[in-house]
Specification:
By secondary structure, the chain is of the alpha+beta class. The chain is built from eleven helices and 35 strands.
Amino acid sequence: MNQKKIILFFCTLLLIFTFPAFPVRAEEDREDEDVTMAPYFLVVSEDTSVDCFPLKETDVTANINGSIAEIFVTQTYQNEGDSPIDANYLFPASTKVSVHGMTMQVGNDIVTAQIREKEEAKQEFEEAKSEGKSASLLEQKRSNVFHMDVANIMPGDTVTIQLHYTELISPEEGMYQFVFPTVVGPRYLEPSEGPGQDEEWAITPYLENGTDVTGEYHMAVNLSTGVPIANLSSKSHDISIAWHNHSSAAITLADPSDYAGDRDFILDYKLTGSQIESGLVLSEGEAENFFMLTIQPPERYTPEEIPPREYIFVLDVSGSMNGYPMDTAKALIRDLVSNLKETDAFNLVLFSGSSEQLSPESLAATKENIGKAIDLIDKQEGSGGTSLSPALEKAIRIPSGQDKARSIIIITDGYISNEENVFDLIGRNLGTASFFSFGIGSSVNRCLIEGIADAGAGESFVVTDAEDAAETAERFRTYIQAPVLTDIKVSYDGFDVYDVEPAVFPTLFAQKPIVLFGKYKGGAEGTVTVTGKTGNKDYSQEIAVSAIQPVTGDDAIRYLWARTRVERLMDYGYNKDNPEVRDEVTQLGLAYSMMTPYTSFVAVIDTIRNPEGKSADVDQPLPLPHGVSALAVGGGYQAYSEPSMVLPTLSLLCILFAGALCRRRKRREGSI
C-alpha cells in the first residue's frame, strides 16, 4: 500500500470516528436493531407507515387542602394512523404519591381499572390483547416512575387515561413546595448490569433536541390553606394566579401554548406567621379508623461550638450534566467548598463512566487546597455515562479523620437506573457517615435524590438553576451545623393506637413538622405527647385528642398511611427479595387499591375490537428534559465509550499519523 493510500485510509478513519455517535433509530428499522442497553433517539420519517400514537393533551388538576394534595392526571392520545396500535409509554410522579385510581376511556366506552397482583394483571392484559380487546396496564417501575401499556387501539380511536393520586406536602423552614414531575429523564444502565426485567423500562426512545412537541400540557392547582397565604410563586413556569380570598387561589399556566411538559412544575407558598400549627386529623371508616399527627418542632438551636467536620463531595460530570446542569453544579460546589472552616477537611470525587479523586486522603480546608479543588471542578464539561456506585464506594473508602464528623454529599441529576444498589451501599455504611444529596436540573430523578437522604439519615436539596446555587448552599450549611431536635419520642395516653408509621425518628435537622400516620380503636380521647432535646434543653409538646372532631368519607389519610407503610417495609429496596415483605406489600396494595412494586392496575373493554389480532408496536417517545444534553441519551456507552476521551483521542491519533506520513514523504522529495 503506497503512502497516498495510507493517508486516505486514516482520513477515512477520522471521518468514521468523528461522525456523531448518538444512537438514533427510525421507527421502521428498530425491529432489527439491538436496543437492549440504553435510551435512544427515535427519528420518525415522513413516510413512516406506523403512527406514534401522539399524546394530544395532558391535563393536571391538583386540589390542595391544608397539607394534603389530591391529584387527577388526564392524558389523551389518538391513533391517527391506518392500522391498530399497541403502545407503551413512561411517565413520572412524585416519590411520595399514592396512586389509587385509574380509568380508561376509548370512544364512548369507559372502564374503571382493577388492582391485581402484578403477574395476574399482566396475564389479564395479555389475554385481552390476544383476543382483540382494548386494554391498558399500569405498572410501577420505581417509586416515581410508572409504565403504561395500551392494546388494540384502532385507527381513529381517542384514548383517555385518568389517574388519581394522593400526596402529603410537608413544609420545611416555613416553606411549602408542591412538585409535579412531568417527564422521566434518560437513565444510564451500567454495562455490567445488563437490562434485567426491572430495568427494561429504561430502554425508551427520546425525541431529538429541537423536535417540536405537539401535545398540549395544562396545569391547574386549586390551593386552600385555611390561613392567609403570604407568598405564592413558581420558579419553574410562568403562572397566573386568581385569588378567591386571602387563603385560597387558583393557579394555572400563564401561557398554555408554551410547552410545560419537559420540566418539573414547582409551586412554592408560605403562610402568614412564622409558626406552623401542630394538628391532629382523625378519619373514621367502616372497618378502620386512621389518624394523621403533625407536630411543629422548636426553633433551630445553634450551639456556640460547632465540631470540626469532614465533607466528601461526590460530583456527577456525566454527559447528562453537560451545559447548564454542569455550570450550576460548579457554582454550587464552589460555594460549598469556599466557605469551609480551616478546622474542616474535605475531598472531591468526580464521576462519569469512571471516577477521579482530588486526593488519597481528605485535605485541610486551606485556601491553597480549596483553590486546587476549584481548578479541578472548573475543567469539567460533562460527558460519558453515570456510574455512581463505584464513585460512592471510592468516597466511602477514603480514610476518615477520627476527630471529625463525616458527611458525604452527592451532587447529580440522578439519571441512573440502579438506585437500589446505591441505597444498599449507603445502608451498609450508615454508621460511618451521614449522606446528603443535591439534585441538579429541571427534572431530576427524585427517587434517587430523596432516597439517598432518607436512607442515609441526611437531607435532600434540589437546585433547578444557577441562581439557586448560593442560596441552597447556605441552606445546607445552616442545616448541617445544628440539629433542631434529637432523641425524639412519641407516647400515647388513653388513645388506643396501633400500626403507627414511622415508629422511630432520626435526628431532625431541618425545621419541618414531624408527621405520623396510624390507626386507632375506640373513641377519640386521650393525649399524644412528643418529647426530645433541642440543644441542651428538654422539649415537650402535648395534643389533646378529644378536642378533634373525626371526619368521615375522606380516604386521603387511609392512602397516605398505606403508602408510608409500604415505604418502610420496602426500606429503599433492601427487602425487595424478602418473601414475607413481598407478601405484605402485595396485600396492602390489594386491600387499599394502591399501586406498589407488586400490584398493578388493569382495565379491559370486553368488546372484541380487533378480531384479526394484528397491531403495530409503538414505543411512545419522550421529550428530553429541559436543559438536559443530548449526551444523556445512549447511556454514554452503547454507540461509543466516554466520547469526550475516545473520539477526540482517535481523531488526534489519525491526524498525527497522517501528518507524520506527509512530512516523511516531503522530506524524501526535498520539500522540507
